[in-house]
Write a structure and sequence with these properties.
Layout (H helix, E strand, L loop, with lengths): L1 E4 L11 E5 L7 H17 L3 E7 L2 H5 L11 H10 L4 E6 L2 H4 L3 H10 L4 E6 L13 H11 L2 E4 L16 H9 L3 H8 L3 E8 L4 H5 L4 E5 L9 E9 L2 E10 L10 E6 L11 E11 L7 H26 L4
Parallel strand pairs: 1-4, 2-3, 2-5, 3-4, 5-6
Antiparallel strand pairs: 7-8, 7-12, 8-11, 9-10, 9-12, 10-11
Helix pairs in contact: 5-6, 7-8
Length: 322
C-alpha cells in the first residue's frame, strides 16, 4: 500500500481512483464495510482504491483541546487498511487553513485535481468542508459536475453491547472508557489495542513475583477504565497471553495512572525501551486496595488464573475448524 502525507506526495501521473474519506479512527466494523466496498468497487472499475484521512483529528483544530481519545494511531490504521486491500492511504495535515476549505473547494482540490476520483464511497452521515457544510447529497451534485459516482454504504447496527446503535468510533470510545472491552471488541471486530514504549516503573511487580511491562502510552490514547483485564502483550511478532492492570495502584498510594501487562508464564523478559502493544480481551475485576500484601498476592494469582482461562477459551472459540 502506498502512503502519502499531503497532496504534494501524490504521484504526478496518478490516474483515476475510487476514494473514501474519513477520520477512520479504530477502523471498526462500520469503517471496514465502507473501505471494503471502496476496494471492491475499485477492482470492478480497474482502478486503485484510496483512503483519505486527517492528522491531527479535525476537532483538535476546530476546537482546540477537544481531541478525542484515539482508538488507533495512524500506523495501526494503515496496517488495518492494508489488510482490507487498500492501494493508497493519503493523510492530509489538518490545519486551520485547511479547515476553512469550502466543500466545493475540497472536492476540486482533493477529489478532482489530485485523486481524479471515478467513484467516492461514504457512510450516510459523512460531512466535510468548512463547518462540515458538505454532505453526501452535495457530493452527488458535485459528482454529476465532475464525472464521479457517489455510493453510500449503510452502517450495520450493534448488538446488545452497543444498545442497537450504528457502529461508531464515539460509541467504541465510550465502551472502552467504561471498561466494556468486550463490547468494544464487538464493534472493532478485534480486541482494543493500546501501544507505547516500555518504561521503568516502581518495579514492585518484579518484587512481588509478577514483573510487568509498564507501557508509556501514545498521546490521546483511549485507555480502558481502571481495573484488571485479560489480553495479550505484543512484542515484535509475538503475542503473549497477559494479565493487564490499568490504574493508579492504590495498594501503594499511587497517583499516576499506568497500563501494566504481566506476560503469563514468561520469565526473564527484558522489554525496557521496546515499543509494544497491549490487546484488551476481557474485563476481570475492578481496581481494589487489599488489607495485606498476602491478600494482594492471592488476588493477583486469581487474576492470572482467570486471565489464562479467558484467553484459552477465546482462542479455542476463534480457532479454525480442523
Amino acid at each position: 500500500m502506498q502512503r502519502w502525507r499531503g497532496l504534494e506526495d501524490i504521484p504526478q501521473d496518478w490516474g483515476r481512483s475510487v476514494v473514501t474519506i474519513g477520520s477512520y479512527d479504530g477502523v471498526h466494523r462500520g469503517h471496514q464495510l465502507i473501505i471494503k466496498h471502496a476496494v471492491d468497487r475499485a477492482r470492478e472499475l480497474g482502478v486503485p482504491s484510496v483512503v483519505v484521512t486527517f492528522d491531527p483529528h479535525p476537532s483538535e483544530v476546530v476546537r482546540p483541546g477537544s481531541h478525542p481519545p484515539l482508538l488507533a494511531p495512524h500506523h495501526r490504521r494503515a496496517e488495518l487498511m492494508a489488510e482490507l486491500g487498500v492501494d493508497a492511504l493519503l493523510i492530509l495535515p489538518f490545519t486551520s487553513e485547511f479547515s476553512k476549505l469550502s466543500p466545493a473547494d475540497f472536492v476540486v482540490k482533493v477529489l478532482v485535481d489530485k485523486l481524479h476520483a471515478k467513484a467516492v464511497v461514504e457512510g450516510p452521515n459523512f460531512r466535510f468542508g468548512h463547518k462540515a457544510a458538505g454532505n453526501v447529497d452535495f457530493l452527488r451534485e458535485q459528482g454529476e459536475t465532475y464525472d464521479f459516482e457517489v455510493e453510500v454504504v449503510d452502517l450495520y447496527v450493534t448488538g446488545e453491547a452497543g444498545g442497537g446503535e450504528p457502529f461508531s468510533s464515539t460509541l467504541t470510545r465510550r465502551l472502552v472508557a467504561e471498561g466494556d472491552v468486550e463490547g468494544a471488541r464487538e464493534i472493532l471486530g478485534r480486541p482494543h489495542r493500546v501501544e507505547g514504549v516500555v518504561v521503568r516503573g516502581a518495579q514492585r511487580g518484579r518484587e512481588l513475583g509478577f514483573p510487568t511491562a509498564n507501557v508509556e502510552t501514545l498521546p490521546h490514547t483511549a485507555i480502558p477504565a481502571d481495573g484488571v483485564y485479560a489480553g495479550w502483550l505484543h512484542v515484535a511478532d509475538e503475542a503473549m497471553p497477559a494479565a493487564i492492570s490499568v490504574g493508579t495502584n492504590p495498594q501503594f498510594d499511587g497517583t499516576e495512572r499506568t497500563v501494566e501487562a504481566y506476560a503469563i508464564d514468561r520469565v526473564g523478559l527484558d522489554l525496557y525501551g521496546l515499543h509494544v502493544a497491549v490487546d484488551f480481551l476481557a474485563y476481570v475485576r475492578g481496581q481494589a486496595r487489599f488489607d495485606s500484601i498476602e491478600a494482594l498476592l492471592e488476588a493477583i494469582g486469581d487474576d492470572v488464573k482467570r486471565s489464562r482461562e479467558l484467553i484459552e477459551a477465546y482462542e479455542a472459540d476463534s480457532a479454525p475448524p480442523a
